[in-house]
Give the backbone structure.
Amino acid sequence: MTKRVLIIDDERDIRDVVRVSLEEFAGWKVLTAESGLEGLQMALAEALDAILLDISMPGMDGFQICRELQNHAITRAIPIVMLTAKVLPSEQQHLRELSVAGFISKPFDPMIIWLQLAEILNWPI
């Protein structure tokens, strides 16, 4: 069965590069959202296998989005992998408290980001 992944990131270039990698190399169905609010709406409306979420975004940041996703029965079980330029030690603790599946650092390698995501989520390759 094809995996369905939602990318929530305010940077168009990041969304496009990750989308192409996940679609072309892994064959997954990818949806994208440019804001936390749009991402929340999509997560509530779509059947998803995972969410790749940027931490630093205007408006709702990744931490706020995680809390919102965990407050909804529909989205609570969707694994979230954070995509971030830096994860400070205090943020790592916060991420553990939010039950995030893992994180991928920016800059990332577009040729292997799909492998990193599959490994974090224990998906067969």
Remarks:
- The helical segments are 12-26, 36-45, 62-71, 89-97, 113-120.
